[in-house]
């Protein structure tokens, strides 16, 4: 309670003056003020939950995991902490089978006590989906939608289930319904873009563009749009976006690689391509595609020694990389 009272006082002083404060005004939390508040109140479960959920909305799962785990350690009996922690477990890129079973148990326990908790119902459905038990997954999704027909994440999971089952039409329909419930949900537009990109349909650019308008400074979103434009012959527009990515995040090695690729195979500017590939390998020393393409450039320059040297770097990282093995075999026969 002491933390809560102090927090309310601090927020009031930070965002409002005493003279013009209105009873109906509501504090809008964002990453910046939550970061500041958590430096002062690192054990505030409410703040950890707010930031963790915000990070999930931004698809920053690794960052959200830290807040979720801390909130759960501080108050494992609170439903919101259990839900966020379970969600963090199943979205962790390094999750184990044990993590999935732990999340499944947490959701089951919540649903037993709170059978109308739609967040837990969809979370439980998600664990069934990960176990490829789509029958039970749809069962809990539909149960959640009977309680709240506008629950966005239920439609997202429904779309993912259909996608995993190869049902393109119903996957698109479900994702479309998700963004209808939440037009600012850029993740839904990325999912739709990815589906159409897989079908080699240039309409994917429209969906990626919508996501980009919502998140114009998100390098991952920009990359999706840039790569789609590159795939469908809009290399100049793609290059502009890749350069923007680099300005936002100079460690995004894929942007350097794609700029190199365009320079090498579209504009035939081998020296510029070499520059960008080398930048990619500076950032990511194990980026074998860059080393391979550097080898191709040296081949075009008739510098077989440096070509083989670059190919050797590829095979040191991945001895089974077929494209490089083929080039090395050809070069050795020519000697």
Describe, in plain words, how this protein is organized in 3D.
This protein has 335 residues and is mainly α.
Largest sheet, described in full?
A: none
Mean pLDDT: 89
Radius of gyration: 24 Å
Please provide the count of β strands.
Answer: 0
Structural class: mainly alpha
What's the shape? elongated
Q: Output the helix-strand order.
A: HHHHHHHHHHHHHHHHHHH
Q: What portion of the residues fall into strands of 2 or more residues?
A: under 5%
Number of helices: 19
Could you give the distance between the termini? 79 Å
Low confidence ranges: 1-25
Percentage of residues assigned to helices: over 70%
Task: Summarize the structure in short.
The protein is mainly α. It has 19 helices and no strands.
Primary descriptors:
single chain; 335 residues; 19 helices; disordered N terminus
Q: How would you summarize the topology of this molecule?
A:
Elements: H1 2-15, H2 31-40, H3 45-57, H4 61-74, H5 79-91, H6 97-113, H7 118-130, H8 134-147, H9 152-164, H10 168-181, H11 186-198, H12 204-214, H13 219-231, H14 235-248, H15 253-265, H16 270-283, H17 288-300, H18 304-317, H19 322-334
């Amino acid at each position: 309670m002491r933390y809560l009272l102090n927090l309310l006082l601090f927020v009031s002083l930070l965002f409002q003056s005493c003279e013009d404060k209105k009873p109906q005004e509501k504090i809008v939390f964002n990453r910046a003020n939550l970061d500041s508040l958590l430096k002062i109140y690192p054990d505030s479960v409410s703040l950890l939950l707010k930031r963790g959920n915000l990070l999930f909305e931004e698809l920053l799962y690794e960052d959200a995991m830290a807040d979720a785990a801390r909130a759960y350690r501080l108050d494992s009996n609170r439903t919101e902490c259990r839900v966020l922690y379970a969600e963090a477990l199943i979205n962790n890129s390094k999750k184990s089978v044990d993590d999935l079973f732990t999340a499944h148990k947490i959701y089951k326990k919540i649903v037993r006590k709170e059978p109308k908790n739609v967040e837990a119902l969809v979370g439980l459905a998600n664990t069934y989906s990960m176990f490829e038990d789509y029958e039970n997954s749809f069962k809990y999704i539909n149960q959640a939608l009977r309680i709240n027909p506008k629950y966005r994440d239920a439609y997202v999971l429904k779309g993912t289930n259909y996608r995993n089952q190869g049902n393109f039409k119903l996957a698109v329909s479900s994702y479309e319904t998700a963004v209808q419930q939440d037009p600012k949900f850029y993740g839904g537009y990325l999912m739709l873009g990815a589906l159409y990109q897989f079908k080699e349909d240039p309409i994917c650019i429209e969906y990626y563009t919508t996501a980009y308008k919502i998140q114009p400074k998100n390098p991952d979103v920009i990359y999706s749009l840039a790569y789609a434009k590159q795939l469908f012959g809009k290399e100049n527009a793609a290059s502009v976006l890749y350069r923007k990515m680099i300005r936002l995040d100079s460690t995004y090695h894929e942007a350097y690689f794609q700029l190199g690729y365009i320079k090498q195979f579209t504009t035939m500017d081998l020296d510029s391509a070499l520059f960008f590939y080398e930048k990619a390998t500076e950032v990511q020393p194990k980026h074998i595609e860059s080393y391979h393409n550097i080898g191709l450039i040296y081949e075009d320059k008739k510098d077989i020694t440096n070509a083989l040297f670059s190919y050797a770097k590829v095979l040191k990282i991945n001895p089974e990389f077929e494209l490089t093995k083929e080039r090395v075999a050809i070069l050795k026969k020519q000697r």
